[in-house]
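Notes for week 9. Today we move from apo structures to complexes. The key idea is that a small molecule is not decoration. When we ask for a structure prediction with flavin-adenine dinucleotide present, the ligand SMILES becomes part of the input, just like the chain. The input block below holds both the sequence and the ligand string. Read it once before you look at the output, and try to guess where the molecule might sit.
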Amino acid sequence: MKNFQYGKPTSLEQAAAFLGKGDPNVYVMGGGTDLLGEIKEGLVAPAIVIDLKAVPGLAYIKKDKEGLAIGALTTITELAGDAGIQKDYRALHEAAKAVASPQLRNMGTIGGNLCQRPRCWYYRDARVVCSKKGGSQCYAAKGRNKYHAIFAGGICYAVCPSDLAPALIALDGKVAISSAKGERTVPLAEFFMPPIVNVRKENILNGQEIVKEIRVPPAKPNEKSSYLKFIERGSWDFAVVSAAVKAVLSGTTVEDIRIVCGGVAPVPWRMKKAEDALKGRKATEAAGRQAAKIALKEAAPLAENGYKVEVLETIIARAIAALGK
Ligand SMILES: Cc1cc2nc3c(=O)[nH]c(=O)nc-3n(C[C@H](O)[C@H](O)[C@H](O)COP(=O)(O)OP(=O)(O)OC[C@H]3O[C@@H](n4cnc5c(N)ncnc54)[C@H](O)[C@@H]3O)c2cc1C
């Protein structure tokens, strides 16, 4: 591992100023649970690491008539333990509880969770120069691809590993992004960038920007949400597939619905056709399964991950049935 300088900014402005110089070897760090792994594995070699945890006032959960505001340095444990989130934003509560292990949730931040790099085994092997690292091909396409994308692969089949991202997109979350040039706010659905746009990156941050805050609109009285994740083993694990669902219900009838899936595409994947098929129907497991089948016709599994199609159908169906519980 190469030595790096450690920066402890005292304000967000100071952190942004470090990045504003445009040096690609300056990295920001939240809890470090992903970044330090990448450094140790030889995937990145920063010259300077800026520790955002040193900046006061970036960890908070506020709820008011504007909705929910979550500081980027809020830990996943804090999210999972917040009673207001549990009451009004169940999908986010369930997603936070499903992230990794207690130790990782204690250290990992919401900002870092959204910006974490993919877990594709070819990407994580420093010896492999795949398309994400400037090489000419995605080795998963014809190689070992059990955990890879069934939607929107092509140039890169690595999946978005975040549990929080599908839940926050289903809940119509936005992200406030800060830089030396000012602040911009974008819907989280537009924060993630498919490989076809830029295979080297997973989000729209331009290298000089910092995630400052996540905002979620107020929950409507007749709104319900849920998050369900399928993992391969009983202890902590990344999602093989997951589904976040938010619905506006009239009794048990779906007036409006958002379904966003994890572990199946390089970005959190919206199941628009399933949403359309569910509008006006009862939020039951059977209706969810029928709707999922329609959307999953568009899946393009690889040699080893066809099972994801079946599992996702069930996870979506059960996440919809969970709205009524
Ligand atoms: C063994 C293991 C199991 C895991 N299982 C799961 C799981 O089941 N579900 C899941 O969702 N995740 C899982 N993770 C990922 C884990 O949740 C992330 O590592 C963690 O959320 C990242 O948060 P962090 O604050 O530590 O980020 P860091 O490691 O500090 O940063 C991660 C990346 O984000 C960038 N970054 C951090 N904060 C900001 C910011 N505010 N603005 C801009 N860029 C930023 C960093 O530069 C870096 O590139 C697992 C990780 C491990 C190691």
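The mean pLDDT is 97.
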